[in-house]
């Protein structure tokens, strides 16, 4: 009887260990999320359609490209404001450096940030319907950098649903 209890105990321990291993393998790693809004980098965003480009002068000296998901692109094409829930915009930014081959041109240098705006009028009701995320090397920027997002958008583009980027036709 004592041997049966020991064998049963060993079997239970083995099953617990195996179950833990299988659960750990199957559990996807949590994506890094921005403070305040909880925004993450969307899957596959680099394959999205180009919405517009910009060049930021000093002090940032950046070249920027904004990509939009299908919801965003349909809204831009239709001239729809406010943007519908489900709109996601991603801004890629690089240092603006002079071209070595053609002096009057600029080319992207080192990547600086990837910034994300997600429209969800219920989840982000307190911030005009938008959630913001700023990422450096795939990791969220600090809270202080996220605290400036809403104020900047509200002060400059309140009448364009807090979105700076215009459709590049």
TrEMBL record:
This is Cytochrome P460 family protein. CDD domains: cyt_P460_Mc-like. InterPro entries: Cytochrome_P460, Cytochrome_P460_sp. Signal peptide: none annotated. Residues 42-165 form the Cytochrome P460 domain.
